[in-house]
Structure formats: structure tokens, C-alpha cells
Amino acid sequence: MADLEQRYRALSRQFHPDYFYNAPAAERRASLEQSSYLNDAYRTLKNPISRIEYLLQLEGMGPKGPEQASKQVPPALLEEVFALNEELDEIRGMRQSGAPAESWTLRLERARTPIEAKRADHEAQLQELSTRWDSAVDDGERRTILQSLRERFLERNYINNLLAGIERELVADT
Q1: Quick one: 87 and 151 in the same domain?
Q2: Which of 27, 79, 118, 134 is paired with 16 by a 20 to 30 Å CA distance?
Q3: Is the pLDDT of residue 113 over 80?
């Protein structure tokens, strides 16, 4: 991150439009365009998740579309997904039968806790894998790390979808 910041600052000074105010129009436009690309790249690389997503795309292992994570349940999450879906069905039944809101919201909160813990675990795994990727030299090791990054990234997206489903249930009657 320190290297990224340093390079960004150096390139910003080189391409910033303020340094081209007396330049011909074509150079001013080029400066604006380069500065815009630089800012986009910096935002992408500075955010750990967008950096991983970009890396996966760059290596041809990125998600094929935004809905890819929700099409197939990652094998590591099958049990949690099954249990959560059963719990959500029961909660919907409670709500439809007129159960007090505090009873089913409490169950939703309890259902959310292990999923949030899994998300925190995945965030830590993504961070650890990113650090390993940055220091890996061997192509075989990098490929293994990249595959693990892809799996954790897709699982992370699925976990976020599960949490979004819980949130939808919480606000469904409000």
C-alpha cells in the first residue's frame, strides 16, 4: 500500500491537469484523461476487494457476471445455506401467522450471527491470501493462491447475498 500511494502521488504530479493549463488543448485533454485513468486505477487497487476482483479478471478467473455467485452454492457453504433457508422459511411462517415482531426479529438476528462470523473469516482469509500473492514469486504458487482467492471471493459474494436476504426479511414488514 505504501508503494501504491507513493507511485500514485508521483504520477498525479506528472499528469495533474493543473500543470497543463498553458498547454495546447490536445495536451490538456490528454492530461485530464490520464489523470482520470490514474484515479480510477488508484481507487481500484486501494480497496482490497476491488483489487482482488481486478486481479481475478486480469488473470482470466473473474466472475462471469454479477449473478454468478448466486447461481451455484459454493460447496463449503452448503450446510449453512440449507440451515439458513430453513430458518427463513420458519420465520416467514411465524410472520404470516401473526407472531409478534420481536419473536421473529430475534430469530433473524440469531440467524445472522454465524453468517456474519463467516463473512469476517472470509475477509481475513482474503487479506491473508492477498498478502501471500503480493510476496509470491513462483508461478505455481501464484496460481494456487489465485485459485484460493477466487474461491474465497465467490464465497464472500454468496455470504453477502445471504446477509442481504436476512436484511430484506428484517425490513419486509417495516
Answers
A1: yes
A2: 134
A3: yes
